[in-house]
Amino acid sequence: MVSKRLSIFASAKINLYLKVGEKQIDNYHQIETIFQSIDLFDRLTFELKENSDSQKKSLDFELQIVNSPQKSLIPTDKTNLIYKAARLIMNKLNIDHLSLFVELEKKIPVSGGLAGGSSNAASTLFAVNYLLGEPLNQSDLLDLARELGSDIPFSLLGGCMLGTGRGDQLIRLPEPKDLIFLIVFPPPDLELKAKDIYQTFDQIQETNSLPKPEISIEKFIEILLTRKSDISKYLFNSLEESAISLSFWVDKVKSLIDSKGYKSLVSGSGPTVFTIVPNQNMGLNLLNELNKAGYKAQLHQTTSEAFQLIIH
Hints:
Order of helices and strands: EEEHEHHHEEEHHEHHEEHEE
Radius of gyration: 20 Å
Strand content: 25-35%
Mean pLDDT: 91
Number of strands: 12
Number of domains: 2
Low-confidence stretches: none
Shape: globular
CATH architecture of the largest domain: 2-Layer Sandwich
Helix content: 25-40%
CATH class of the largest domain: Alpha Beta
Number of helices: 9
Distance between the termini: 16 Å
Largest sheet: 8 strands, mixed
């Protein structure tokens, strides 16, 4: 096998609406969510070749992290989802004695609620399958994605989607192309683990003090598609109170944005905070105010694709 290379720009996601139900008997929560891909990308370069030691029945793996202030938070061993995704494909195809080198340029915050790890895993499924000559179809890859994590099937498909079940049952929606998001990135040393957020959610839920969405997800989709009303007023996330309770930073950022007349929201399990701005100029004005206050913020738009490819 000749060494083959492929680079992928893997998109982040935000949750425009996230309603979380009670924990089920399998310890998972049923959710209703609207996923949206945005033009914030990690770049991953994959190089796959045959292992020089043909007797070695394993996957040689090397992950190199570049240009990331959160490098110390990213495991480079077999606990990383990139390795797990590659290993899953190898097992599915009964392939061994291959070497996979991955260079990861990390722009999506680690444990930030933007599906950074999920997008990396989805990219790996796509890339390894591509470099092996595409023996698996999209349905096969989605089955593998569901084994890896609830957000990974969406990260494989991208765009705008309704997610139900664990978030892995997906229905494509038309992309709202005119939305402009202002995203506030957490400090590099701040990460909120999804398991801690959900554990806190369960504790808060026992007191019946969690806020409820103003409208159903069906009504939210209708407004998102027709724009008969300002969609930003109906942004919702059941996990937001949990993120606020675990991070004073989240509360400070939200308070500042809300004081300027915008509706802010935590994405996913947080701590990343975003808002929808009416236009580019208003977004730049708010961006400048956040930067002056010491926060790192950027403007982003929707994208209809999970990946952008560079064939070497």
